Amino acid sequence: MTASRTTGGERAPRHYREAWPVPKGRPLDAVNYAILRRDWATGTTTPVRFDDFT
Q: Engineered SS bond to 27: which of 1, 8, 11, 18, CB 3.0-4.6 Å?
């Protein structure tokens, strides 16, 4: 799934641990991808800075 999302222009997945409630069960993890509107409209990709995480 990651490969299909990143080739579509989305970057920087967010992982939410036990964020999806399930009736009669433990909550499930969730993943969210995002794309900037201007990247989608222009067909470009804005680079993600990974060096600013501390």
A: 18
